[in-house]
Amino acid sequence: MNIKKYKNYLFLLPFIFLFLILLNWHHSIGLSIDDLFFYTIPQETNIMSFVIERYDIWSSRILIEYILCQNYPLV
Hints:
Layout: H1 3-7, H2 13-28, H3 33-44, H4 47-57, H5 62-71
């Protein structure tokens, strides 16, 4: 094996190590109340009616909440 070939990538080792630690920590954290709230939206109601209702309450978060409702069923 040519060590010089891999020597340029040694600076990545701390970042890879940190990534693995954070990934392990992320999987040990349970769902919060917000997670559970947005997870149940697609099962309980139509997403578009939910987003329209939320637009009337808080219009600046409409895109964020639409994305949350779309992505949480994939988790």
